[in-house]
Each structure stands twice: as C-alpha cells, then as structure tokens.
Amino acid sequence: MDIFKEKFQAFLEEFGKGRKMVLSTSENDKVTSRMMSVVQLDGIFYFQTDKMLRKYKQILNNPNVALCIDNIQIEGVCKELGHPLDNSNFCNSFKECFQGSYNAYTSLDNERLFMVTPTYIERWVYKGSAPYMEMMDVEKESYLIEEYKGI
C-alpha cells in the first residue's frame, strides 16, 4: 500500500463514523458556516439539510465546501443525492450516530441528502511538542507532512 492510501485510511479510521462539524458554504463571495451532523462512509462525508435553508441554495450555486472540526479541515465537492430515506446506508449510520437528529428531521419532506467528496485534507499533528502540518491531496493521491517552523 502506498503512503497516501495508508495515511488516508488511517485518517478515516481515526475520524470514525460520525462527528458534529462546521460546514462552510459560499455564494457570490459571501461565506457562511454552521454546525452539522456528518457521517463518513467509505471516505465520503454525508449530511442532510432542509431545501428551504440558505446553505441549500449556496451549495446548488457553488458545490465547493469545507468541513472543519478541531485540527482538521476537509475541502470537497458537494452533491445532492435526493431524500435521506432513499439511502439506507446513510440512514443506518446517521441514526446510529445522531439518533435525535434522525428522529426529528430525516423523514421531513424538505430534507435532502448531500455527499461531500473530499479533495484536500489538512490537519495539525504533534510529534512530542513539535507541530506538523499533515496534508492529503485526495485528487492527486499525494501525502505530505511538514514541521511547522513559523516565521
């Protein structure tokens, strides 16, 4: 296994099935962010939202999004998949990770499921007390880790 695949797989295992993350979207040079319940299935990140909300319109007009949590930033391309109940893999995982949100929102008529295919992942890691930037270009399948030296 090459270094990218090894590190990407390790990242996904560490990430786990689901997390609450900040989703950033933009349209016409205006960026907005909000907390979302996100599940990860086979290296793709999924969330659901109401089609009447601002982020829905922003994603339709600009599918480039970012997800962020703690020391992790994930850039990717977002695509609408239809109603969440039409995807049993998502529903099973979402229900397991976010039972309250699943019960409250998943069956609503206006809910839509989105997938984020990651294009670039960056995170801070520490070796002892030394900070490093870990970068994965998912599109190019390249991996780089560099010690952060500051100025």
Task: Write up this protein.
The protein is 25% helix and 51% strand. The chain has helices at 3-15, 54-61, 88-97, 99-105; strands spanning 18-27, 30-41, 44-50, 64-69, 72-82, 111-127, 130-137, 142-147. It is built from 4 helices and 8 strands. The model has no long low-confidence stretch (mean pLDDT 96). The longest helix has 13 residues, at 3-15.
- Please describe the biggest sheet, giving its number of strands, its sense, and whether it closes into a barrel: 6 strands, antiparallel, barrel
Query: Terminal Cα separation, in Å?
Result: 35 Å
Low-confidence stretches: none
Gross morphology: globular
Strand order of the largest sheet: 1-2-3-6-5-4
> What is the rounded Rg?
16 Å
How would you state the average pLDDT, rounded? 96
Percent range for helical residues?
25-40%
What structural category do the secondary elements indicate? alpha+beta
**Beta-strand residue percentage:** over 45%
SSE succession: HEEEHEEHHEEE
Please provide the count of β strands. Answer: 8
Helical stretch tally: 4
